[in-house]
Amino acid sequence: MVLVAALAVVVLARPSASGVSANGWAGAIRPNIPPRTWTLTDQDGRAVRVGAPGSGPSVVTFLYTHCQDTCPATASTVRGAMDQLGHDVPAYAVSVDPAHDTPASARTFLSQNHLTGRMHFLLGPDASLQHIWNQFGIQPQERDSEHTAYVVILDAAGRQRIGFPFEKLTPEGLAHDLRKLSQPGTHA
What we know:
Layout: H1 2-13, E1 28-29, E2 38-41, E3 47-50, E4 58-63, H2 70-85, E5 91-95, H3 103-112, E6 120-122, H4 126-136, E7 150-154, E8 160-165, H5 171-182
Parallel strand pairs: 4-5, 5-6
Antiparallel strand pairs: 1-8, 2-3, 4-7, 7-8
């Protein structure tokens, strides 16, 4: 009986060929974390407020400008999801390497990844960023360890609802979950 129950959990919880799991989401449902609004400066020196209620679903990811592997791939996936939606959603890349990320390198990163005007690259002092990394469970880039490569969708109330580790992130899955969270009355 235990074996049958375990098998049922594996079969019902695994994603389908489309990447959507039995619970209807492509990404992982995040714990019920209270919404938090925070402000950082973007690549153009503008103050950007993230998580403000009423802004609709938004994408938050954690990147650094000199990354050569997961960060460009993550940026491309976010861009692909917005292309599939047919419209942009608020998208934010939070620096995980404040010692080396600058406004100029952030603008270059966004340009090289075809996200200029589509994503804000958020910068700030280590202490401000550390607070945000902690809220999302992110390990920043360090000399001896790689940063956490993760994408989170915030709902219209600013709550963390759906998360995608880099290995599970696809444009189709991200677009699916953004579309689903845009529907009135939908909650993860």
